[in-house]
Fold:
Amino acid sequence: MSEATEAVAGLRRLPWKSESGKPTFLASDDPNSMLALMADQIEEQHLTNATTILGLVQPMYGPDARLTASEALFMLRRTAECLADVVDVARMRGERLDSE
Structure:
């Protein structure tokens, strides 16, 4: 699950964690650096994944839905994973806006 992370002035938080599970940061003013572009791609992939999962899940909880307990749990887990990623993307982008 996602957790709140304090922004570090002058650093961009990246959408992956260190081996020890701590947030990683980029110290660069270049938005076109290799790591900044990679972080942008990963953030965009998180948003794409969430959109895809949402499209798959929406028909599954309608009035005619007939899911087994394990199917419903699987759907809930994937949705929660995507939601956590999207919340992180929103926070990271908000941190960058605050620093501008």
